[in-house]
Amino acid sequence: SITSTLVTLLSLSAPGGVSLVVPQPNINATVAQNILLSVEYSCRGVATIEWKHVSSWGTTKIVEWKSGNYVNISTVYKDRVTTFENGSIQLLNVGMRDAGYYFVTVTEEHGTNTYGTIIVNVYEIIYEDLHFVAVLFAFLAAVSAILVCFMWLCNKSLHLFQKKMTHKLTASTTEEIELETIEC
């Protein structure tokens, strides 16, 4: 299948027995969303995992840890990163500056290592568009209310006009009957 072929292509093995799988190499996120940079590694010994972020603003080391021993998170990411035993990390509350390339390096205690890359695109939700839709909706509601009032006024005017015409017809018919009676 295509998925297993993709995972096989993204699975990198080093001679020392370190392998790394990156199941989702592209991630699209919106501002303030939490994202999981998912990887899965395996090795014979104890591994050291390191994540770096590379963007137009430069390269930043996010976190480094040795499985079962220590976790060293950079101060920039201190309250925003969660690490997992399989080598994955979760970034909380992403912003536009979090877009870019994320490189993970898994190094075995004997010095062999392997690399993986994840591309993250971060998009802003454009509130001006939502504002425009709200204003347009309010405008259309106001116009429809004015049209309903105008139709009600036209209907009332028509009823008054018909009532007046009926009254005039009745009055002129009565006059004709009286005139005819007097002529006799």
Description of the molecule:
With 184 residues, the protein is of the alpha+beta class. It folds into two domains: 107 residues, Immunoglobulin-like (Sandwich); 58 residues. The chain is 36% helix and 34% strand. It has a six-stranded mixed sheet with strand order 3-12-11-6-7-8, with no helix packed on it. Strands 1-2-5 form a three-stranded antiparallel sheet. It comes from Nestor notabilis. This is V-set and transmembrane domain-containing protein 5. It is found in: Membrane. Keywords: Glycoprotein, Membrane, Signal, Transmembrane, Transmembrane helix.
Put the structure in a nutshell:
The protein is an alpha+beta fold and about 180 residues long.
Total beta strand runs: 12
Instruction: Report the biggest beta sheet as strand number plus sense, adding barrel if it closes.
Output: 6 strands, mixed
Could you say which structural class the secondary elements and strand pairing correspond to?
alpha+beta
| Helix percent band | 25-40%
| CATH topology (level 3) name of the largest domain | Immunoglobulin-like
CATH architecture of the largest domain: Sandwich
Give the overall average pLDDT.
85
* Low-confidence blocks of residues: 1-15
| Radius of gyration over C-alpha positions, nearest whole angstrom | 38 Å
Number of distinct helices: 2
Q: Which descriptors apply to this entry?
A:
single chain, 184 residues, alpha+beta, Immunoglobulin-like, 2 domains, 6-stranded mixed beta sheet, 3-stranded antiparallel beta sheet, 2 helices, 12 strands, disordered N terminus, glycoprotein, transmembrane helix, Ig_V-set, Ig_sub, V-set and transmembrane domain-containing protein 5
